[in-house]
Amino acid sequence: MNEEENSSSQMRKTKPQVDEHSKDRQLESFRENPQDQYMTTDQGVRINHTDDSLKAGSRGPLVMEDFHFREKMTHFDHESIPERVVHARGSGAHGYFQPYNDSMKEYTKAKFLTDPSSKTPVFVRFSTVVGSRGSADTVRDVRGFATKFYTEEGNYDLVGNNIPVFFIQDANKFADLVHSIKPDPDNEIPQASAAHDTFWDFASLMPEINHMIMWVLSDRAIPRSFRMMDGFGVHTFRFINEAGKSRFVKFHWRPMLGAHSLVWDEAQKLAGKDPDWLRRDLWDAIEMGDYPEFELSVQIVEEEDEFKFDFDLLDATKIIPEELVPRKPIGKMVLNRNPDNFFAETEQVAFHPGNLVPGIDVTNDPLLQGRLFSYIDTQINRFSSANFGEVPINRPVTTVHNHQGAGFMRQTINKGKANYWPNSIGGGCPMMAPENQGAFVHHMERVEGHKIRARSESFNDHYSQATLFWNSMTATEKKHIIKAAHFELGKVESEEIRRRMVGHFSKVSKELAQKVAEGIGVDVPENFNQESTGHYEANEASQKMKKGQSVKESPAVSMERNKVETATSRQVAILLEDGFDCNELTQVRQALMEAGAHAKIVSKLLGMRKASTGEEVKVDKSHLTTGSIMYDAIYVPDGEKSIQAMMKEGDALHFLNEAFKHCKTIATSGHGIALLEKSGIAGVSYAGSTSRTVKDDEGVITAGNDADADEFADAFIAAIKKHRHWGREEKSMVPA
Ligand code: HDD
């Protein structure tokens, strides 16, 4: 081999050097920047006038030869593509993933998970499932959590949700599920909501849905932020190590800020006042440098342990309780850059659970197997072309060489005559890569069986894990589930469907069924069984699985029990009018800033407000353009005149009352205490307005005007860290 041949063969073998910025560098060559440029046509011809079209006389008809008008109009007419059939509404962000260490080497040969010096670029798209592209962010729904890792071995997509199980067990039911949950086919009502007869009709006839229903009725389905929700790969996948050994694996994302939720009343109001709530939160956080961070971890099960549980690992309606198989942390993802263009990046990104790299493989989960077909198929519907992989956001940072050449909108110019394999005319290129050169080789799983359209009997237990979930909830979480069921089923007109659902709940928990039934005007049916819905009872095979390992409770599935307490990036509204106490405001603002929280001044009108001592502050938002639902906590600085003005302001009083009802932290001192009382906040014991005491009554922090300001600020921040003060839900309140 001469020197030239040697170096070209080296090039073939060398993987691209991928770093945190590789994808950004690649995207840079596609970015268009109009700064200091003349406007041109798509052909690059400069334009001197774009306000009028070419006419036969200034009052005459348009003329066909106006290439500028025709091009501009035609382009506009074709600017939309079909929205995703599910997960249509979403928000994206760029970032990177870095492993903590090489501890995963034992389990997987995927380099991006094992080399702690590597920072792999990622693009994440968070989404709701049911609503259209323009629907509200805060509806009760599962959230999508899809991550594209641009690894040095090609693209790997982890296309997960914020709930670790799914509605159905077999992909053949997906179209039915989605049809039932989407708006009704005749009148297209309701938008982005499961609360209608068709969904609950389907649910009540599909017992396998019960575990998922518990999660969807829980607060998981109304996250406070995309930055504060878990993510799950859902299915059991495989890890393959260098030696070719396979193990089962479940993927988890955990947000560093902890998983937190809205309350339902707040979520509904936000859907009207700020339908972009989650999208805006993600965007703003990244712009402000509060980069969302998520830890990736895995549960690993040895192949020989496949049948040791009381459920089937291939059944996507089951979790592996963490108490049986603890999570092993792998590394951290940081989202640190907003997209430049929503359409080019967030809308055009195309995920596919079959985008795998060496070291990760799929299992025979019948839901996953069906997904392996659906995702490419749906992209062809969205892009009208199989060339969607060439769109900049979808390109791997590795080079692409194959014979897939033509088709709509082909971008690359494939050289040479040989567009087939094998060939001698093209020197046999591109060549087949051996496994030790990073080729993906499917895990050699032994498979045998009769061709049969059937469900494995080991999938038959549809209630145990629903019960496990219910048993693992705190009293507050249980209450929220019941209220959610009252809302969802309360919107169902058919009494028969409501009763059937309560029948299923009775197999999950008698207490749950009874409490749900009380709110929706039906009785708990006696001796309800699956057969009445046309489905089979758990039979012998599933009874056998029931003897496998199980737990009765899994604290790991409760958000409340795993709360991360931090004030980082929390939004605090400061309500004031002219005459506020500037000293106190300055001290509390400083403390909030040091805790990583963001404070905004809210007042009746925009403009400047004057302190009792003459200093001025700028108002960030007027009551007209904001509301308590857009903040995590409220602070009212002392100041007699300021408080007196707010005593007469319905908006300020409502702001406080509503925040109280939503169990948010509220702090005030001195004269402010009277304002809290006036706002109708019930059942709180306050510190005296002139005392030295700082009092925390379920997150209502009050202090006398002689109290220590540091102590007051510390108590305020400690309460913000708790997220919500659910004990207040006990206090009977008029809806805010
Ligand atoms: Fe799916 C999109 C997650 C089951 C078919 N799915 C989609 C997205 C996420 C998920 C996050 C949005 C990706 C993006 O942001 O572009 N899907 C899941 C999870 C599932 C699941 C976690 C169960 C474990 N999905 C599932 C099944 C099928 C599909 C069973 C069909 C057999 N999903 C699709 C789809 C979508 C999609 C129709 C619509 C848009 C797209 O793919 O790109 O192909």
Automatic annotation (TrEMBL):
Recite the lineage of the species: Bacteria, Pseudomonadati, Bacteroidota, Cytophagia, Cytophagales
Q: Which regions are flagged for Basic and acidic residues bias?
A: 16-34
The scientific name of the source species is: Pontibacter actiniarum
UniProt cross-link 3'-histidyl-3-tyrosine (His-Tyr), position: 352-375
Keyword annotations:
Heme, Hydrogen peroxide, Iron, Metal-binding, Oxidoreductase, Peroxidase
Q: Where is this region: Disordered?
A: 1-41, 538-563
Any idea which residues are catalytic in this one? 87, 161
Q: Which GO terms describe its biological process?
A: hydrogen peroxide catabolic process; response to oxidative stress
Quote the record's binding site residues for heme: 84, 125, 174, 371, 375, 382
Q: What is its EC number?
A: 1.11.1.6
What is the protein's name according to its record?
Answer: Catalase
What is known about what this protein does? Decomposes hydrogen peroxide into water and oxygen; serves to protect cells from the toxic effects of hydrogen peroxide.
